[in-house]
Specification:
The structure holds two protein chains of two kinds. Chain A is α/β, with parallel strands linked by helices. Chain A has helices at residues 12-26, 38-41, 44-49, 61-72, 84-87, 92-101, 129-134, 147-157, 205-218, 236-246, 261-272, 292-298, 303-315; strands spanning 9-11, 30-34, 54-56, 77-83, 107-111, 140-143, 164-167, 172-174, 189-192, 197-201, 223-227, 230-232, 249-256, 277-282. Chain A is built from 13 helices and 14 strands. Chain A is globular, with a radius of gyration of 19 Å. Chain A starts with 8 loop residues before the first strand and ends with a helix. Chain B contains ten helices and seven strands. Chain B is globular and about 50 Å long. In chain B, helix 3 packs parallel to helix 4 and helix 3 crosses helix 9 (216-228). Chain B has a single domain (5-272), classed as Thiamin diphosphate (ThDP)-binding fold, Pyr/PP domains (Rossmann fold). The chains are: A alpha/beta, B alpha/beta. The A-B interface holds A 31, 52-53, 55, 57-58, 60, 62-76, 78, 93-94, 96-98, 101-104 and B 56-59, 63, 65, 105-107, 114-119, 122-134, 136-137, 139, 155-156, 159-160, 162-163, 166-167.
Amino acid sequence: MKTYTYTEKKDTRSGFGAGLAELGRTNPNVVALCADLIGSLKMEKFIEENPERFFQIGIAEANMMGIAAGLTIGGKIPFTGTFANFSTGRVYDQIRQSIAYSDKNVKICASHAGLTLGEDGATHQILEDIGLMKMLPGMTVINTCDYNQTKAATIAIADHHGPVYLRFGRPVVPIFTPEDQKFEIGKAVMLTEGTDVTIVATGHLVWEALEASKVLFEKGISAEVINIHTIKPLDEEAILKSVAKTGCVVTAEEHNYLGGLGESVARVLALNNPTPQEFVATNDTFGESGTPAQLMDKYGLNSAAIVEKSLSVIKRK
Amino acid sequence: MLNTKHLEDLTIQVRRDILRMVHKVNSGHPGGSLGCTEFLVSLYNEIMERKEGFDMDGIGEDLFFLSNGHISPVFYSVTSRAGYFPVEELNTFRLLNSRLQGHPTTHEGLPGVRIASGSLGQGMSVALGAAQAKKLNRDKHLVYTLHGDGELQEGQNWEAIMYAAAKKVDNIICTVDLNGQQIDGSTDEVLPMGSIKAKFEAFGWVVIEIEQGNNIEAILKGMAEAKSHTGKGKPVCVLLKTIMGHGVDFMMYTHAWHGKAPNDEQLAKGLAQNPETLGDY
């Protein structure tokens, strides 16, 4: 079995900051907007190097989404930065009408997604954003797993015409994506090949899935781990090819099971190859205050939960 | 004195278009459309600097954003008669498979539209972004907008109004249609807003008032004054006092025709008050 190790942990938001800084140097049309969270989004480098291409909006996210839509009229490629909660639920109608329906080339970049935002609690921990964004026609939805992938995704979406939701987070997590791995929107990354169960994971749960695969291997179970960084458009072919081999699947995400990656996978399977599936996701609940690790443990979003669901889904084959 | 005869003629023709469009599909918003006819006719045919044809980026020309998208009948009539698309297409207003959706959208690729509007309160933010893109592109042209007065009850406007002054977006002229009416009654009955002029001024805008917002000469004079204030570090607001339903006597001075179409008899009456000038579509 292919195993993954890491030498360094970093936050995915820093990958966004690094990608944005690189775009500042390479693409003169890229502009950035922020609603009073420059430090949290790691946007300092871009601002320092391109002050005229940065727009501090203040605490006014609805206005930020509209301004971003307007900046595309004139050829700019706006990257908005704020927390995931304020990037989606707070401004849903602005995104729907002024960006998605208007087909504006805006990149909505959202940090502090999910429970791993931690101590600030449920007001800030959105677990519904993937659902909100994937329901919008024409919206591309990406949830990256580590620093390198987030940096590569940030750079890649500038070359994609159309609205994109890029979701990343606050905590430091292992870096296991090769620095030079090309980011292809809508193309799953096969991490470990296996024959007994497919684990389809996104975001922070990808590393947990790799950890789970090691535990499963010790139990004599061969798990195939797929990193689905793009939830929409979904790499249906990769999923179907894998379950044709394994006959069962576990999906893993830091999101409500309603509206998340798991439901997107379930639809593909229902239409093409009905397959037993288990969901590692929050169970229609809000989060709460706590450390990221405590929260992921309490809400069952870790490698232990993936192992448990894998064992139970295999029995359903 | 500027000869405004061609604008007057066009205004009458646009009124006919509005009435015929909403009558045909028995839906749409004639009241606000008629109230803003003189303004939009003047804007597209005398005030704005426009290029031939249409491209989304609009570099090297003035831009217009309609925030109160429900007055789509006047917007479609004026833009078609300004050459963006064939006037015959007005026949398809609100019909299935039409580019002329109930509220304007870029989604169907209708030339002349740069943003979808309909859900209120979003247009000013978009226009500010477009104005800031013009600055980045070293494009000296202006961005114009139109908003309903009732629309100012949406909070996003005030985020935008605060931002525009704070960031010195001085290449924008936002016009508010002060007709004092909204769906449930007069603005004073529904949610009194106090002095809109004082509010904009308190937020740091230059405010120009056009008392006779249905008079083309007054509009041209007021908008010229508004334009003279651009490029001086402050955003410019025009308060355009209009009469909802203007030009069709039984539709005037009431909110009753906000979103209601005339029947056959009412259409005939309205058209009789506005005899054909440039040819019906």
